[in-house]
Amino acid sequence: MTSITKVQPVNDVKAPIARQDAALNKPQISLIVGALVVTALLMIYLLATQHISQPILLVIGLALGYTLFHARFGFTSAFRRLASVGNGQAMRSHMLMLAVAVTLFAPILAYGYSFFGTEVAGYVSPVGVSLVVGAFLFGIGMQLGGGCASGTLYALGGGRTVMFVTLLFFIVGATIGAYHLPFWTEEMPAFEPISLATSTGLGYGGAWLVSIVIFTLVALISVVIEKKKRAPKMAPVPSASGWQRIFRGSWPLFAAAIVLALLNALTLMVRGTPWGITSAFALWGSKIAALFGVDVASWGYWQGANAAMLESSIFADSTTILNFGVIIGAFIASAAGGLFKFTKVTVGNFFASVIGGLLMGYGARLAFGCNIGAYFGGIASFSLHGYVWGILALAGTFVALYLRPLFGLSVPKSNDSVC
């Protein structure tokens, strides 16, 4: 197996942005105005043609993208830092985000709090071969593709050119995964969905307490690992001070963790399910395939409740609207900081993005979601599958550390700075 070589550390989604941030460039007003015009037109269209929840979800998506970009809040880099050099700062921000999320989700799920009379349900999925294989593949894919599902969208909005490639093949992989999913779910063994709240007798109060204990233990373990490995700290990203920091620079990870948890809970109350990303990719890919004569309506994935999604406009799909919002929100955030700029694509990261996108798309369908739907949404919903997803994605990350140098991608070493 190829050894991990020392190369100049690059943090995928975050690195090009972090280097530019030091200059604190002037806001790109023309780009901001253009984005606001597009947003306004989309908002008017949604108000005229869709349920009121769709324009609200567009606003939530904008806030999600804005937050992700300004905090450089990553899942891919957090897993890689922990696996490669033992730095757990970003992972601890995940634990804070999850702690706030379960605190908000518990009463919403227990009492069915929602807007518009929507029935509320968390993401609780089976634990089986499909989940194990899918999460492991996703873990490899996100390290090769340069970003997870949310990272792909917000890096795309920030101008990272290679993420267009990642997104394209993410959609292809998700579509193939949708076609194959009945085999993985019906032919492969799996346990019934397990909720810490409803399957164990703990109730939402007990499940909340167990979850907080788990998050605390993970955070403490990350501190122990850091001390043992003498892990380098994350390099600070320069930013403006005072109120200008809202628009001009890096947000603290802990602040973004809280905001993301609040927005996910709001999403749950608006549409009845938590934030998700990759189901829209399968929808987009299937609709494109149908244009070329593929009988996607006969696939098992598009039977039952999913059939209506395939027949409707993509603008009726709440996940699609959230995704559009994330991209536009990240674009506005990057332009407000004067940071939007298309980046160069090398042969190595092009092919890594192709493979990474395919693995993430396929893996997300098998694993009932990505780092958002399965990991964030699953754990926030008290589902065991969310924890299993995190463990297997971390295992995939360890494997990917040996694959990244093959494509000229960096792997941080213990004596490198970590951005």
UniProtKB/TrEMBL annotation:
A Pfam family it matches: Sulf_transp
InterPro entries referenced in this protein's UniProt entry, alphabetically: Sulf_transp_TsuA/YedE
Alphabetic keyword roster: Cell inner membrane, Cell membrane, Membrane, Transmembrane, Transmembrane helix, Transport
Protein name, UniProt field: Sulphur transport domain-containing protein
Annotated membrane topology: Multi-pass membrane protein
Transmembrane annotation, as ranges: 29-48, 54-75, 96-114, 161-181, 201-225, 246-269, 281-302, 314-340, 346-368, 375-403
Chief localization: membrane
Family: Belongs to the TsuA/YedE (TC 9.B.102) family.
Organism: Planococcus antarcticus DSM 14505
PANTHER family associated with the record: INNER MEMBRANE PROTEIN YEDE, SULPHUR TRANSPORT DOMAIN-CONTAINING PROTEIN
Localisation per UniProt entry: Cell inner membrane
